[in-house]
């Protein structure tokens, strides 16, 4: 299995290559600005989802005792938000 950093690097290289390709098409007048904006947004959403999957898969392989349910993760995020709000006050 490739390392965690290599997986991130390959994701970003693929994203940059696709953006550069669209930019070239845009300069030639083949693609309009709205298409590029939508493509970049969807590509970033996809990358975020893939990164979450890589992180969870890496943690499960590296740390066999790593099991977090959705409910536990949600509680953790909610508590973190509450702590940030308390610090602001």
Task: Describe what this molecule looks like in 3D.
Keywords: Membrane, Transmembrane, Transmembrane helix. With about 90 residues, the protein is mainly α. It contains 3 helices and no strands. The longest helix has 30 residues. The radius of gyration is 19 Å and the shape is flat. The model has no long low-confidence stretch (mean pLDDT about 75).
Q: Care to give the gist of this entry?
A:
The chain has 89 residues and is mainly alpha-helical. 82% of the residues lie in helices and 0% in strands.
- State the low-pLDDT regions, or none: none
Shape: flat
Measured by DSSP, the beta-strand proportion falls in under 5%
Rg, Å, rounded: 19 Å
Mean pLDDT, all residues: 73
Which keywords apply here?
transmembrane, 89 residues, transmembrane helix, mainly alpha
List the helices and strands and how they pair.
Elements lengths: L3 H24 L5 H30 L7 H19 L1
Helix pairs in contact: 1-2
Keywords: Membrane, Transmembrane, Transmembrane helix
């Amino acid at each position: 299995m490739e390392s965690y950093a290599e997986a991130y690097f390959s994701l970003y290289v693929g994203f940059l290559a696709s953006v550069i390709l669209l930019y070239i098409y845009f300069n030639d007048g083949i693609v309009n600005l709205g298409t590029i904006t939508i493509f970049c947004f969807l590509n970033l959403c996809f990358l975020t989802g893939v990164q979450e999957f890589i992180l969870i898969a890496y943690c499960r392989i590296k740390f066999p005792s790593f099991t977090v349910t959705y409910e536990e993760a949600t509680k953790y995020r909610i508590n973190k938000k509450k702590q940030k709000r308390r610090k602001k006050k």
